[in-house]
Write a structure and sequence with these properties.
heterodimer; A: 425 residues; alpha/beta; Rossmann fold; 8 helices; 24% helix; 33% strand; B: 281 residues
Chain lengths: 425, 281
């Protein structure tokens, strides 16, 4: 059988730091632009790919895979592993630098929910516009319009401009349009991370149906549970290379295994967040440092027993006086599920007033009730209800078994331990 | 199941591979996307005058106000003679096309940068983005054209028999605007200098197009030079076709050639630069 998608030696090179050229001062900008003009001119023209220097990076390197018709494939990988780049090439948004992809079917891709929605247009108008962008014909849209609206549960708001929609409504409408495309291949990026749980389930259900009807799906998600649920096959990307392909269960196991092998990562209890690699690309550094201590105040170097106390210090910088700020520390399992979320805004006695400059906060958790296993800590800073910085996978924590209940037994099943009283009635 | 089969056979195998150098323009793909193009034009029309009080009337006010000011400044104070028609009719007949051209170029040159999400998150023929902006402005152009007739009635100025050629000059204006819009929008993705350069050159362009002065002010040997600006010939020709008066066919010919060349160049340059849009925008 000929594969519906075939990638051969697929590679993509990007220039590093192109987006981050600082133009703070006019002089700097002038000097910079004079020096760079010639190079930039060549590059903008569409040549210049030949200039491979240290400032170039392979976002994808020599990727080879085949997808058969009817396969539902999960693409798994950490941030910056090249998942989005791969989807962009498959969606024709960007060209590969080397290699090629052979596609044998109509492809629809959903890299972002509601791309092309215009805030001033009504829900109805946006459905038609978005549908056309995703490749539906007018006739197709007319016949599916009612279905789309019913799926989004937005009948009452059809004639309201979408700028008045809540983010949940926006996502619902966007996904509803995409869910009613009828392509042979559907490419879906991390779009289900938004929206409420009930709607997420509905979308996954719809995609499941789609997959069962013999269509091909490529699915990227951080939600490993969703990948396991939906996909039969999996591809693991690590730093631009394809390191595993096979059935989805083995792929997830491989990925989780690869993640936990990196445990040597915590060389010290102090993590430099300012230069962290796990910062999502849309954020600038505000978070400076993360420090992890055991309950006694002793530096913690990666290991802790179930039920032990933990203290997490977060240092960040406020560039102007702020009253409304929230420091967030999430604990995730290796599947990427947030197990526990700590936030400074959950502190009932918080009254820190307006603060500016470098701040250091401590979050003390008297008993960390996680069952044995590996966990990741991520940190975020929210100013005026807007997330300004977010560092993933800042610290790796290994929780060891302990006799938490004092019975000589080490609890390991489930996610957490909790006080429980048993009595004979 | 039947739809599946139809879908499979109608889709030829597609190979996504690196492209270098000049590429042919995929007219088939553009034709297949015509419904989307219509939607994008409709979108741009719909949102352009959202939350404005005067709405579509702006399409009238812009050239009309410019006409009044030019009539006072150039017609009265500077005393430019038009060899016939009243100055306001004369200058308005030029302004209609010039305003369309100026708006087309300035709006479309910012269109890709202003629609980053469309460029980096979705695929469709990207020429649609700048061209749809221009398509939406065609409505304004037609509103403006009606006013030419209105002014002619007002001044009891006879319609020239040559007016059958009028669509030709409209077409030339469309080609020139589209060509320049395509080139500038593509350049703007890599070089934001375009954003600053365009308003300036548009402003200057008005003075090197025969909008405010008749052709007789330009010595014959410089007219070919003037014709390198595609809008010169379109304005002169349009004016001649509607209200008569002087025309220089050599100039019209040069400008027409320039307009076609600009359009073709626009398509190819856009095509060539297109593949880097998503990476650099």
């Amino acid at each position: 059988m000929t594969p519906i998608i075939e990638a051969v030696h697929l590679s993509k090179k990007f220039k590093l730091g192109a987006a981050r050229s600082s133009e703070d001062s006019l002089r700097e900008a002038l000097v910079h632009s004079l020096r760079a003009s010639w190079q930039v001119l060549r590059r903008g023209w569409g040549d210049g790919d030949s200039s491979s220097g240290p400032e170039w990076m392979w976002a994808l390197h020599d990727i080879n895979f085949r997808v058969e018709q009817g396969d539902v494939v999960g693409i798994i990988g950490a941030n910056g592993a090249g998942k989005s780049t791969l989807l962009k090439i498959l969606s024709r948004i960007t060209d590969p630098t080397e290699g090629y992809v052979r596609l044998r079917g109509r492809v629809a891709s959903l890299l972002e929910v509601g791309t092309g929605f215009h805030p001033d247009l009504t829900g109805r108008e946006n459905v038609f516009l978005n549908g056309a962008m995703l490749g539906m014909t007018k006739a197709e849209m007319k016949s599916k319009f009612d279905e789309i609206v019913a799926f989004a549960e937005l009948e009452k708001f059809l004639d309201t401009p979408v700028k008045h929609y809540s983010s949940g409504m926006y996502v619902r409408l966007g996904f509803a349009v995409a869910a009613h495309l009828d392509p042979e291949v559907l490419i879906v990026d991390e779009v289900l991370a938004v929206g409420d749980i009930a709607f997420q389930k509905k979308c996954l259900g719809k995609m499941g149906q789609f997959g069962q009807s013999g269509r091909t799906i490529l699915f990227v998600s951080h939600n490993i549970a969703a990948v396991l649920n939906l996909c039969q096959k999996g591809i693991v990307l690590e730093q631009g290379r394809l390191t595993f392909q096979g059935d989805s269960k083995s792929a997830v196991e491989y990925y989780v295994g690869a993640m936990s092998q990196k445990e040597h990562k915590n060389e010290t209890h102090i993590v430099d967040l300012w230069n962290a690699r796990g910062r999502l690309p849309q954020y600038q550094p505000w978070l400076r440092k993360l420090e992890v201590y055991a309950g006694s105040g002793k530096p913690l170097e990666g290991e802790l027993a179930t039920g032990d106390p933990i203290r997490v210090h977060v240092e960040f910088e406020l560039r102007e006086p702020k009253t409304n700020f929230d420091v967030r520390v999430n604990f995730l399992d290796l599947y990427g599920q947030v197990i526990f979320a700590a936030r400074s805004s959950y502190e009932p006695k918080r009254d820190w007033g307006p603060r500016s400059g470098v701040q250091e906060f401590e979050c003390e958790i008297p008993e960390l009730p996680f069952t044995p296993g590996e966990y990741r800590i991520e940190a975020a800073l929210v100013l005026d209800d807007k997330c300004v910085d977010y560092v993933e996978d800042a610290y790796r924590l290994k929780v060891l078994g302990s006799d938490y209940y004092g019975t000589g037994k080490v609890p390991s099943l489930g996610f957490f331990v909790h006080d429980q009283d048993w009595r004979l009635l | 199941m039947t739809t599946d089969n139809i879908g499979m056979t109608s889709v030829p195998e597609l190979v996504l591979k690196p492209h270098t150098g000049w590429q042919p323009v995929d007219f088939q793909e553009i034709w297949q996307g015509r419904e989307l193009f219509a939607f994008l034009v409709w979108r741009d029309i719909k949102i352009r005058y959202k939350q404005t009080v005067l709405g579509g009337l702006w399409a009238l006010f812009q050239p009309l106000l410019a006409m009044l000011i030019f009539t006072v400044v150039f017609g009265r104070l500077a005393g430019i003679r038009t060899d016939g028609p009243p100055y306001s009719l004369f200058t308005y007949s030029g302004l209609v096309l010039w305003t369309f051209f100026a708006n087309s170029v300035s709006i479309s040159s910012n269109s890709l940068v202003g629609n980053q999400a469309l460029v980096s998150k979705i695929y469709f023929p990207r020429v649609f983005i700048p061209l749809a902006c221009i398509g939406a402005l065609v409505l304004d152009l037609f509103i403006g054209l009606f006013l030419v007739f209105g002014l002619m009635i007002h001044y009891r100025w006879p319609l020239s028999i040559g007016c059958v050629w009028m669509p030709f000059y409209i077409l030339g204006t469309l080609l020139a605007s589209s060509g320049l819009g395509l080139i500038l929008s593509a350049l703007n993705v890599s070089f934001r200098d375009v954003k600053y350069a365009v308003p300036f050159f548009i402003q200057m362009g008005l003075f090197v197009s025969p909008v405010i002065y008749p052709l007789s002010y330009i010595p014959a040997r410089f007219r070919i030079l003037l014709g390198l600006n595609p809008m010169s010939g379109m304005i002169v020709g349009f004016r001649h076709s509607m209200i008569g008066g002087e025309v220089d066919w050599a100039l019209v010919g040069t400008s027409s050639t320039m307009a076609v060349a600009l359009f073709v160049a626009g398509l190819f340059i856009f095509r060539r630069m297109e593949r880097r849009f998503a990476d650099v925008i």
